[in-house]
Amino acid sequence: MVRRRWTARPVAVFGLVLTGLVGGALWWWAVLRLALVPERTGLLEGILAAGGWGLGLLPVHVTPHRGPRRGAAAGRG
């Protein structure tokens, strides 16, 4: 039996890249607007800036703990 390697389709990759670029542009717009013209910003800019900051921290907090192993895998037993 031949196992085929998974390859991403170019259209799907393009869609993900485009989504990331648009999301990044919207986040920068909100952050710069909050920094440069704080008296004219609204709820939308605050939500976008806070949401982007939270997503930036998310990968750090959802990675599994790679502490010392227990049992036979650690050489005990």
Largest sheet: none
Over all CA atoms, what is the radius of gyration? 21 Å
Reading the helices and strands in chain order gives HH
Query: Total helix count?
Result: 2
- Which overall shape is indicated by the principal axes computed on the Cα atoms? flat
Account of the protein in words:
With 77 residues, this protein is mostly helical. It contains two helices and no strands. It has helices at residues 10-36, 43-61. The protein starts with 9 loop residues before the first helix and ends in a 16-residue tail after the last helix. The mean pLDDT is 78.
Defining traits:
77 residues; mainly alpha; 2 helices; 60% helix
Brief write-up:
By secondary structure, the protein is mainly α. The chain has helices at about 10-35, 45-60. Helix 1 (about 10-35) crosses helix 2.
Protein topology:
Layout lengths: L9 H27 L6 H19 L16
Helix pairs in contact: 1-2
